[in-house]
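Morning run. Coffee first, then this:
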Amino acid sequence: MAQHLRVYQSLWAMERRRPDKQEWSLEDQLTMIRDAGFDGCGVRFVERPYASKVTDFLRANGMTWQAQCYPRTVDDLRPVLDLVAELGADHVNLQPDIRPARLHDCIPIVDGWRRLAREAGVPVHIETHRDRMTTDLFFTLELLDCFPDLRLTADISHYVVGREFAWPIDETAHRQIRRVLDQSWGIHGRVASREQIQIQLSFPHMQHWVDLFMGWWEYAIRSWRKRADQDAVLTFLCELGPPEYAITGADGYELSDRWAEALWMKDAIRALWARIEAEG
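And here it is:
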């Protein structure tokens, strides 16, 4: 077997939050994702009825999913792993919903999550995200020093805006981001600038930021392919969020077509993967 890529769409990113209150139903969202050719979804594994309904649809359509959760304690992960045992998932994406000020306070929590993951036999990736344990880039780098084999999900948009990387990006910042990517086993796709957590992919004057992230994602894919088993699966979650992640005009409507941009991202990542794979 060969390594392969799964491109997912975030269900959170399917929320519209328009002034006219028009939303797609969950069934419409899932049908759109299927018909657009995504491999699956990121699914909140917090409420069983929701997770069950979504995974029933995905399974019936030959699709897969990652289980997303937001634990605040070690034991908060237990019901998530129990639900994964029942419904399945290719891995758990864990947003650590705590904000320790000291690295020392993180150690027993991360140790506990890793122990539960080993006992359950379920891969668990810790996401880099603002307002979480991993909110700060420097703090996360220290966390990696403490846990050299820690598996991350890289959402590096948070570090670009959080650290306000100046343009052009200097080598120190590149090196710090590459350190995160070298321990990442999944990717969440969003493009940030130093001032905005999510810029419009389709706007020409934003292209330099899009190119920057595509270069980092290329590095992440190449790094993962060297580390992962020959039959391993890499997941890339397109996660262009609704307002106020998405920028709106004075009328409250978004300035670009976020769904069209998600489709562009899906195709761009698959083309990038194909180019890397063709190199052998």
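The mean pLDDT is 97. Good start to the day.
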